[in-house]
Amino acid sequence: MVISAKDIEETIPIAQETEKFCPAGNSNNVVVSLELSDISPRTVRLTKKCKIIECCKAEKRKAAIPVYIITGIGILLLASIVGKLLNSNLNIIFEEDKRYHLSIVAYVNELNTTWKAIYNRFASRGVSVQEISVLASKNKISQEYLLGDTIEHIKLLKSKKLHLPEQFDARLQWPLCWSVHQVANQGGCGSCWAISAASVMSDRLCIATNYSNQKQISAEDLISCCAECGGCQGSNWALSAFIYWRNHGIVTGGDYGSFEGCKPYATAPNCGSPCSFEYYRKKAAPICQKAYWIRAEKGSNEIMPYVQEIVQETIGNERKDYESICISPASKLIV
């Protein structure tokens, strides 16, 4: 910087005034070049003053840096506090679920049956009847929507006086529908309503098209998109899934790890640890992932359970007349 004697005389204040803003001795490493026509004691004082002015400017530029550091520390502290609060809430929920399942284990073992129950750390608890009622009221789900034409359909079957066979195996009736032979694993998600509904839909699709359409209906799509149906905490009534299917449609999707269709099942059927060979038995239910996703064309005839469903109390006094109605989905267990 080149300053003439005239510039100094007119524009630069004296050094004593400048030192009010900058402590003395902070003018190091500041280079000021003076080109003067007249050397005097005043010029020496002005040289120091010019250095001090440049020093003050540099200090002001550095003052903004600590603000960013303090802001960053504040954000980290806030994130840490929020994380601890969330983790505390999750731990409370986990402990409540654990106590609930341990109470079930204790109750079953007190019965002294032929088998012993143990705690499953991957277990998840479904909602209670009271919680379901609250969810139903919030979503304004009517009884008509939940039940649809179920009662009328049962009355129609009753009026036809159909003869129910002693045994019925869907695998033998429709052997070319491979979905009929499959058994799904819902994992740690209370989605039995979605898996069973999607399985029935897939079966009916194959049967109605005379085996030409073997697409799998996605249980994951039902869980994700049908707000009035439910989720991993169970469902109000499985019929809601069929009403949703009729009104909105459902995409395709196979079992977990199958990569079939648009939206395969997302919850892993984790055993918790690798299965030892000693647990493999000819008649034991499969518990490892690989046992579930084999395409079985004929299935197994070794286990053939029959499930009796009793119509809900909405039928009223006629309920006893319908207790004999038996629905047999047939076992689709792969052994």
Automatic annotation (TrEMBL):
Q: What PROSITE patterns does the entry give?
A: THIOL_PROTEASE_CYS (PS00139)
Q: Return one GO MF term.
A: cysteine-type peptidase activity
List the keywords (alphabetical).
Hydrolase, Membrane, Protease, Thiol protease, Transmembrane, Transmembrane helix
Listed SMART domains: Pept_C1 (SM00645)
The regions listed as transmembrane in this protein's record are 67-86
Pfam families (alphabetical): Peptidase_C1 (PF00112)
One of its GO biological process terms is: proteolysis
Q: Which family does it belong to?
A: Belongs to the peptidase C1 family.
Residues of the Peptidase C1A papain C-terminal domain: 164-333
Name the Gene3D superfamilies on file.
Cysteine proteinases (3.90.70.10)
Instruction: State the protein's name.
Output: Peptidase C1A papain C-terminal domain-containing protein
